[in-house]
Every structure is written in structure tokens, then in C-alpha cells.
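HOLO CASE FILE
Compound: protoporphyrin IX containing FE
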Amino acid sequence: MPLKETFSAYKRRAWRTFCVFQAKLKESLSVYERLAWRTFLVFQVGIVLTGGAVRLTKSGLGCPEWPDCVEGSIGPQPSQIEGVHSWIEFGNRLLTILLVLNVAYVVIAARINKRHGKLAWFQLGGLIAQIVLGGITVLTDLNPLTVAGHYLLSAILIAGIVRALHQIDEHHAAINVKREIFLLSRVIVGLTAIVLILGTFVTGSGPHAGDDQAPRYPFDAAKLAILHADVVIALVVGTISLWLLLRVTKRPVPRAYFYFIGAILLQGLIGYLQYFTGLPEALVAIHLLGSGLVWSAANFLFYSFEKESIVND
Ligand code: HEM
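Model generated. C-alpha cells follow.
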């Protein structure tokens, strides 16, 4: 065979191998992409909990500097007066690294698969903002406004992750429902957001500041907790009404609904328990974890109903 033909045959084979490799890479990236978004959701909810653990063990200023833990050292020093608190806060900072690796994967997968790019970049931007806000929180001596901002930014990022998971799930189809039911689902998610925001005000006025010197809101924490719980009662009523409306109109009840109602009922119970038992740290931590789960479930519920699926009959 002439040299030119042999060369073209090799070229064709190399090109075919490359195409197969590229297709396989895309395929496995798609499989792991979903997994990556799922672990990202777990990490985001998890960091809300570990961030809370820092506050509840009064380790919020365990590392008094940022990005260094203590002047001249990125990690804690044995000579530090903060002692074990410096390690607790440093541990939380280290967890951020896992989130950074996870977001890097999600961004690379989005680039290669050419989809969910905006959502992936949004997560990267959000994480950077979260790291900066973490620094501001330390530098403002755990001001409740920045602590709340830190928490609520996590909630926004969780909403973005659920959106990505919803887009990745190609078999998902929203339920055909009447406009009233669709609107009620939006009211429920809106009420959940209000419960979260009010919760941060209760915490910002309560005893778990993270440090004895940390500033507090000048509000009555007990009264705010009652207001917070009242909105939860409205939320429970709205959620049960949604179930009734779905049954009456003979529509299926989405799976996300059961996660959501289960989560708010449990969370409400823990809320009352912690309120009546003087806010023990362990219950407050579980309540914090519960808030991340409730919010994730609310966002999954959101995507069970879509504007395009509204029916008029
Ligand atoms: C769907 C149900 C609920 C959700 C999603 C929720 C969510 C939250 C959130 C996000 C916080 C702030 C956490 C933080 O910033 O560290 C909070 C704090 C709090 N919640 Fe709830 N909550 C719910 C139900 C209740 C109920 C029924 C009560 C009963 C009174 C309650 C009592 C409290 C109290 C006392 C705090 C302050 C805890 C502290 O001092 O750190 N919560 N809640």
C-alpha cells in the first residue's frame, strides 16, 4: 500500500479512537455529573451544620484572623489562647476545600458537556462569595447580620443545586394542575423562605452567638421565636391544603411532597422542643441541619409544579 494511503488509514483510525474516547468521557462525565451535584447538595447542607457547630461550641473566633488562623500562620498554633476552639474553626475552614473540589468538578463537567454551565458558574461565584463572607463574619466579630447572610447564601446555593439536579433528571415531568394549586405550591416555598429568614433573626437575638463578645440584635428572642413558629403553623396548614386540593382534583401527589411535609413536621417538633428546653446545643444543631433539609425538600417540591403544566379544566 502506498505510504499516503497507509497514513490516511492510520489517521482515520486515530480519529475514530479519539471520537470513541470523547463519547465515553462525556458518558462517564454525565454519570458522575449527577453524583457530583448530589454530593454538592450534601456538602452544602453539611457545611450549614458544621458552621453551626462552630457557633454552638463558641469557636466562632477560634481563628481570630482570616485567611490566616492566627497572625503569621494559616493553621492553629499550640500557643493560641483559643485552644481547642481554634481547631474546631479551622476544621470548618478545611471542609470548604471539599466544596471547592466539588465545584471545580461541576464546572469542568459543565464545560465538557456544554450544559448547566450557568448553574455551575453560579455555584463557583457563590462559593467564593461564601468564603469572603466567612472572612467578613470573623472580622465583624460574628455580627448577626453577617452570620445570617452566611446562612442565607447557603440557602440560595442549595436552591441552585436543586435546580441543576432537576435539569439533569431528564425523566422528570411536572404534574398538570390547576392554577390555584400551582400558586399554592409557590406560596409554600415563599413561606418556607420567610421561616428561614425569621429563624436567623431568632438566632441573632438568642444566646448562641458563637462568642461572648459577639454583638446581638436588640430583639426579644422568645417573641421572635413565637412569630417564627406561627409562620410554620401557616406553612403546615398550606401544605396540608395542597394535599387536599391534589386529592380533590384527582391529581397525583408528588414524591417531594412527602419529603417536605415529613421534614417540616419533624423540624417543627424539634423547634418546639428546643424552645421549651432552654435551647440545648445538640437540639439547636439538629434544628440547623433540619432547616437545610426542609429547604432542599421545598425546592424539589417547587419543581414538581411548573407554569407550563397549568391546566384550565
Ligand atoms: C419548618 C419548620 C422550621 C424551620 C425550617 C426552621 C428554621 C430555622 C432556622 C433557619 C433557624 C436559624 C438557624 C441559624 O441561623 O442558626 C431557626 C432558629 C430557631 N428556631 Fe426554627 N424552624 C422551624 C420551626 C421552628 C419551630 C416550630 C420553633 C418553635 C418555637 C422554632 C424555634 C426556633 C428557635 C428557638 C431558633 C433559635 C435557635 C438558636 O438560638 O440558635 N423553629 N429555625
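CASE NOTES: The chain has two domains: 31-172, 174-313. The helical segments are 3-56, 84-113, 117-139, 144-168, 179-205, 221-248, 255-276, 281-302.
CLOSED: yes
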